[in-house]
């Protein structure tokens, strides 16, 4: 569920959907997808897959069992060589016999890494996570017309931390467990909350009950505020002060607590 503000219905809906889809696809491809646990919806955003193939991957997985290698993904009906070439680097196989299957390294570079490992007189599994060994490799020796130094550098970075999830760890957050309904609120209380909508007149905050509270633009700071977004952002975790509670109209007035 992506909240995009109060004007989401005033813009071209097709253009909005296309823009959001591109953002989600970029995020999915940057993080990677566990092909054995991902839903069809999530898989559909992987480059080269799409909705139909995603459903096929899930059906195949359910009937044949988990994929044990990236190569096994080719067995999915109608998933041809071109689709595999586009998608393979974004699909992860946890616990695969080849550790590279749980990395962003594309299968077309496996032989290159095998050669590097052989030259280093070690196994690929021993190279992974071994920063001192990896940094000592003379990458210039492996530069070709097909593989440049930037690609080799990216491969080494991935081997240093294979399967690294680039997302930051989510901050631990809990609402005030003593506040269960609007009746539990009192003026003056300080509560943790999450911004769930930003408008031109303020922002709404989820404080853990059915009703969201409003921080009017005049209550975002002590001075004059011209731009709400300069003070809060969507999904930001903040502390708010309860100013006023109107139980009959189910309205909660809040102030941003610095």
How would you summarize the topology of this molecule?
Elements (H helix, E strand, L loop, with lengths): L12 H19 L1 E2 L5 H4 L6 H15 L16 H7 L3 E2 L17 H10 L4 H4 L3 H5 L13 H12 L29 E10 L2 E5 L6 E4 L20 E10 L4 E6 L2
Parallel strand pairs: 1-2, 5-7
Antiparallel strand pairs: 3-4, 3-6, 4-5, 6-7
Supply database-style keywords.
DNA polymerase, domain 1; alpha/beta; OB fold (Dihydrolipoamide Acetyltransferase, E2P); 29% helix; five-stranded mixed β-barrel; 258 residues; 15% strand
Written overview of the protein:
With 258 residues, the chain is an alpha/beta fold. The protein folds into three domains: 1-96, DNA polymerase, domain 1 (Orthogonal Bundle); 98-166, Tex RuvX-like domain-like (DNA polymerase, domain 1, Orthogonal Bundle); 182-256, Nucleic acid-binding proteins (OB fold (Dihydrolipoamide Acetyltransferase, E2P), Beta Barrel). 29% of the residues lie in helices and 15% in strands. The chain is built from eight helices and seven strands; from the N terminus they run H-E-H-H-H-E-H-H-H-H-E-E-E-E-E. The protein has helices spanning 13-31, 40-43, 50-64, 81-87, 110-119, 124-127, 131-135, 149-160, and strands spanning 33-34, 91-92, 190-199, 202-206, 213-216, 237-246, 251-256. The protein has a five-stranded mixed barrel. Strand 6 (237-246) and strand 7 form a beta hairpin. The longest helix is centred in the first third of the chain and has 19 residues, at 13-31. It starts with 12 loop residues before the first helix and ends with a strand. The model has no long low-confidence stretch (mean pLDDT 90).
